[in-house]
Fold:
Amino acid sequence: MSKKKEEWGPHTHCIICGNAIPEGEKTCSEECAKKYESEAKRYKQQQKMSYVFLILMGAAMVGFLLLSYFFAGG
Ligand SMILES: [Zn+2]
Structure:
């Protein structure tokens, strides 16, 4: 008896809707690609924002240290 099994081979899944797609691809269709792009854009923007926030915090900290140094050194 020979049961025919469909061989999928190396494949991955669409990161948006989960469809099976060839390995190396990220999305199954243009629609999903667009969705993914906007998601990635938003994610990058968020990262940029937190990066800017960190820099601002660092600058504020340094400024505060300098101020206290000048006041203490008088
Ligand atoms: Zn998809």
